[in-house]
Amino acid sequence: MVGLEEAKAIFFNHFAHKQSGCELIRSENAAGRVTAEPVFARFSSPTFHAAAMDGIAVRAEDTFSASDNTPLALDLSSGQAEFINTGQPLPEGKNAVIMIENVILDEDENKAIIRAPAFPWQHVRKVGEDIVATELLFPTHHFITPPDIGALLAAGISQVAVTKRPKVVIIPTGSELVQLDDFPMEVPAGKTIESNSAMLAAMAKEAGADAEITPIVPDQYDQIKEALKKALKAGADLIILNAGSSAGSADFTVKVIEEMGKVLVHGVTIMPGKPTILGEIEGTPVTGNPGYPVSALISFEQFLAPLLKKMQGMDHGDRPLLKAVSGRNLPSKAGIEEFRRMVAGRIGNDIVALPVKKGAGAITTMTRANAMLRIPAHSEGISAGQKIEIELLRPRSQIEKTILCIGSHDLSLDIIHDFLRKGSPPWYMAATHVGSLGGITAVRDGLCHLAGTHLLDPESGKYNVTYLERYLKGRKKARLYTLVYREQGFMVQPGNPKGIKGIEDLTRDDIAFVNRQAGSGTRVLLDHELKKAGISPSEIKGYDNEEFTHMAVAVSVLSGKADAGLGILAAARALGLHFIPVTEERYDLLIPEDALNLPSIQALLDIIKSKEFRKRVESLGGYSTRDAGKLVASI
Amino acid sequence: MVGLEEAKAIFFNHFAHKQSGCELIRSENAAGRVTAEPVFARFSSPTFHAAAMDGIAVRAEDTFSASDNTPLALDLSSGQAEFINTGQPLPEGKNAVIMIENVILDEDENKAIIRAPAFPWQHVRKVGEDIVATELLFPTHHFITPPDIGALLAAGISQVAVTKRPKVVIIPTGSELVQLDDFPMEVPAGKTIESNSAMLAAMAKEAGADAEITPIVPDQYDQIKEALKKALKAGADLIILNAGSSAGSADFTVKVIEEMGKVLVHGVTIMPGKPTILGEIEGTPVTGNPGYPVSALISFEQFLAPLLKKMQGMDHGDRPLLKAVSGRNLPSKAGIEEFRRMVAGRIGNDIVALPVKKGAGAITTMTRANAMLRIPAHSEGISAGQKIEIELLRPRSQIEKTILCIGSHDLSLDIIHDFLRKGSPPWYMAATHVGSLGGITAVRDGLCHLAGTHLLDPESGKYNVTYLERYLKGRKKARLYTLVYREQGFMVQPGNPKGIKGIEDLTRDDIAFVNRQAGSGTRVLLDHELKKAGISPSEIKGYDNEEFTHMAVAVSVLSGKADAGLGILAAARALGLHFIPVTEERYDLLIPEDALNLPSIQALLDIIKSKEFRKRVESLGGYSTRDAGKLVASI
Question: What SS3 class is residue A408?
């Protein structure tokens, strides 16, 4: 186990002289490739003295007497002056162009009258003004862009020597893996869809390489060895075994590399990505990438993308950095460099960054993030409010256009997001789900543009307003708009096998409940309904078993972990669960006043008032949009 | 003629609803494409409760009594505990995993001994922890990246609906144009290589489109019309006529669009790019792009790239911006927005940006620049030292690695550049050629890392040092290193038709001379040699005819504009000119002391001391590297 920088030094030094070779390609196809040698111009450009303006070509010496007081007539019929267009060659004997705007023609159009002299070579593009034959056009290892193609052709270079695309062979290993194409309708029990290889292949292509994915190889020493031999024979420049790199019984990768070649690094103190193996067989880099998708990705981007680019003479630029403020405490284990996926957006003068969940197994932490925070190995973490630097996963302009949404989740937020993205300009929404109360405090602390909240005040029977008065008033100005009314009820297994009828059944011995976390609107609602029914939480098995979203509760029920959970109809319907209605609740959007005039928030308010939006939300079932966009309170 | 923003508003609003359509493609090929509709997960991921660690699977309730003082033995043979690897499904009845590191096996390996209880669902990835079936995976118009492919496959989505690549048809027009492939050895007199279309096609591909280039169409009204009809019939989403958009007699573009459809914009107050035509025929955008390569490029990037991206639902991000300091006065015409190509690099705490030359006809202004400065229409220019914001044409990391080199040019600098780029890490060099004295003042003013200089002091016969004492001493600390000795002499036409033998021939009536600019080392050398020979500058025809580089002087001679010019052997040899040696001069590198410890400058000093570098320089002819890297003076 070594640190990231040490692992990189070992790996990159070992392959310091590994090159992908060189090939000649047509210049017009060269964008994105890298020159393999210096490129010298064959032709000059222009190849002749050319007019740089539309006008008349003259001999400058003929015009010296012209002035405002003594206009000069040049003879067109004899060729003393000749009409010329931009780009045309200067006629023999001419050395200047006078712009057509500064020329008056006599009635017969035989004479061109000018009122100022031309100086020699005025408005003339001289031979070689752009490119001089033999000059260095591009040095070795120049990354070719579209204008470079124009320069290559103009310099007479129809073919250019570029470095070859390295060939990457990706070998998916694991007896649990299946191809989606073989099981398009349902994944067999205990099996996992092989999704890493296509991701890694796309990353390899981004790094300029060609990628080939072999069939899945089961966790069998001999078969892995065979697959490696075949890849070597096929001339791979880099071989990735994915996964089989941790310490489990099925992890033959390290043994195979050790037998056939040399293991350079086994284990790197990064998270995700710790079980990375870096090795060499017959001069070819062979790596064992971890199996978790985010681990596989980070291992690739830290070690393999830079190596592939280096093989091609491509400069591996780091991701752009952006200064930001951490919205949360982010404790981190010392001794491990941590890669935290973040969502970031602009709140006033700051870019605020918030963490998404941590799991290396969750590829959606990458797809939902727009930035990466690296917490160095020597650090024990980041405090809320601390200044940090984030690596951008999406363009800066997109982060500037991102609405940060913290709080309770509702499916209608996804629909808002979809409408926002289709707008012109498009807006982005990044949401983290921490429950209604978490959303209100996030608004209070200036961490978001928007919070979804559905907190019932059991005393007054009112939604949200009581809580805003308690947590927000006098500390942060904000407005509360209604988004939807939605049905809350018990989600139970399809067919309701345990015959649950209502809240009183939750106390039954044979019923396991799954709850939402404290501070969530659904939890408050449950407590309210329990109180009304005179039931104590201690009577309910699983009351302390908490999940953070409606969908997670639904999954708990579907998988049999629990028999019942409180949630919305749409979540039950999405997973085919049985639903026992309990009540209709109001779900509001809380918007801090300083965000209200942002064009993104204005676009959002327009969307929730639109017919199209309402239609799509109501089609989910269990929703009413009768008050969508109604201002409930200004705090 | 309208302003840039107005032209954009007219053009983009006119095609606000133009879409490129939609197609289904395989998810693994979707990187770089854009979703055409919201994408919902079909499967949950994981689809089963899976071990998140290698270890043993247990029922948490069985472990509650374990502690440091009361270790607990779980029975492996009966299946009370079962070995499990990361990713494997949790056996029926088990609900937790204990890491293998926390398990001790008894001698028979029948019992697993633990010293701490497991809590329920510890180290278990629960069903749907990453993705819940039916949830929104991506909204409409989501730009698909490699991790997104992993998420698509994991969610059971083998095909994804994306927006189509728009089809761009590029019609090169101009009777002066020829294809390089037809004239690979020499361009016919008065003809120009058609190089814009390939550049525009590569830009279209960068904007996500497919591009097709038609054969060259001569400046004939009917033929242009015919080509347009054909492109419309072929289903083009965007048609570019390039060029034929200025006011010359051959400019039929605007007339054809007017006849067949509608001209929306004719002329935009930008430079380069002014003669842009934006129009529409049968609902298809048809544009007349200016013919100068930089004009064509800017017109494309301002109008066509954003439209192509919009058709695909792709967010058109602006180029990243960087704060910089202008190293020069940049006067600009009010009423015109100017796009100045710049080279930028870090000098101490500042990014310093310097202009490259202006010509819209010079594509090398784009290929050599790493940044673009936009001077707004209302501005009359930028002052040296003024804070500016530049748009990055190359990655920020590259600009940070760029050596700014101002001063006299020598071919050996190109060789240094080539070696720098092949290094690890690669370094970049951006050079502007302003003569030796300009280089010394640039060092003095903190505008560069390096200046090439070869200024002879006629009094002492010494090179450079006298000038440094005069211009630098007490104002900026710097060191002077010798780079090369090189032969200076008269470049004359091949075969020396006018029989020039030496400096005294320059006074002949039939000899036109081409000079270097005042302040250049070669000019100082000439003046010194003239004085020695007792010749007055007024006796030489063309003494005031100035060029800025050796190569430009050589081109003047080759093209017959001049009969003789003073320059280096390598330049004469490059263009096949006859060379009459005059003297050997020393060419030094001046490096400000505060740049000396930069790793880039250290790499450069290592290069000029290397055998490989010396060998390549000497192979140019007329060079001696006998003192390369020798410290001459510390000022």
Answer: coil
> Which tokens is A437 given?
């109360």
Across the range B95-107, mean pLDDT stands at 91
B381 Cβ neighbours under 8 A, 6+ residues apart: B329, B330, B331, B332, B375
The CATH architecture annotation of domain B318-402 reads: Beta Barrel (2.40)
Residue whose entry in the numeric block shows the structure tokens 């003339």: A124
What values do phi and psi take at A442, rounded to 5? -65, -40
**Among B173, B319, B357, B367, the residue to mutate for chain A (most A Cβ within 10 A):** B367
Is any Cβ of chain B less than 8 angstroms from the Cβ of A362? yes
Instruction: Return the H-helix or E-strand segment holding A299.
Output: helix A293-299
Instruction: Check whether B71 has a pLDDT greater than 80.
Output: yes
DSSP state of B505: G
Mean pLDDT of chain B, nearest integer: 93
> pLDDT, tens digit, for every residue of B455-510?
989 888 889 999 999 999 999 999 999 999 999 999 999 999 999 999 999 999 99
Q: Output the pLDDT for position A248.
A: 54
Q: Tell me the three-class secondary structure of A231-259, residue by residue.
A: HHHCCCCEEEEECCCCCCCCCCHHHHHHH
pLDDT at B521: 85
CA distance readout (Å), B401 to A184, B144, B407 = 49, 31, 19
Closest Cβ opposite residue A187 in set B47, B152, B318: B47
| Euclidean distance between CA atoms B435 and B452, whole angstroms | 8
Report whether pLDDT(A246) > 80.
no
B370 vs B555, more confident: B370
The CATH 3.40.980.10 domain(s) of chain B lie at 4-15+166-311
Whether chain B has a CB inside 8 Å of the CB on A147: the answer is yes
Contact state of B318 with A181 under an 8 Å Cβ cutoff: no
Q: In chain A, which residues have their Cβ closer than 8 Å to the Cβ of B421?
A: 139-142, 313
Q: 């036409």: which residue's tokens?
A: B493
Q: Which residues of A touch B150 (CB under 8 A)?
A: 195-196, 198-199, 293, 297, 363, 366
Cα of A480 to nearest chain B Cα, Å: 26
The CATH code of the domain at A22-46+129-163 is 3.90.105.10
Which CATH superfamily includes the segment(s) A4-15+166-311? MoaB/Mog-like domain (3.40.980.10)
**Predicted model pTM:** 0.91
- The two tokens of residue B47 are 């689809």
CA distance B33 to chain A (A): 12
Count the Cβ atoms, other than its own, within 10 Å of residue B253.
28
Largest CA distance in chain A: 113
A 504-533 → B contacts, CB under 8 A: none
* Phi, psi (rounded to 5 degrees) for A416: -60, -45
- pLDDT computed for residue A538 by the predictor: 93
User: Are B192 and A363 within 8 A, CB to CB?
Assistant: no
In this structure, what token pair is assigned to residue A55? 């006008």
Interface of A with B in 114-143 (CB under 8 A): 125-142
Distances (CA, A) of A550 to A43, A571, B222: 68, 6, 66
Spatial CA neighbour of B511 closest among B534, B476, B539: B539
Residues A90-112 have a mean pLDDT of: 90
Give DSSP secondary structure letters for A590-605.
EEEGGGTTSHHHHHHH
Domain with CATH 3.40.190.290 in chain A: 432-634
pLDDT tens for B566-591 read: 999 988 987 889 999 999 999 999 99
- Are the Cβ atoms of A88 and B176 closer than 8 angstroms? yes
- For B393, which DSSP code? S
pLDDT per residue as tens digits for the range A317-336: 889 999 999 999 999 999 99
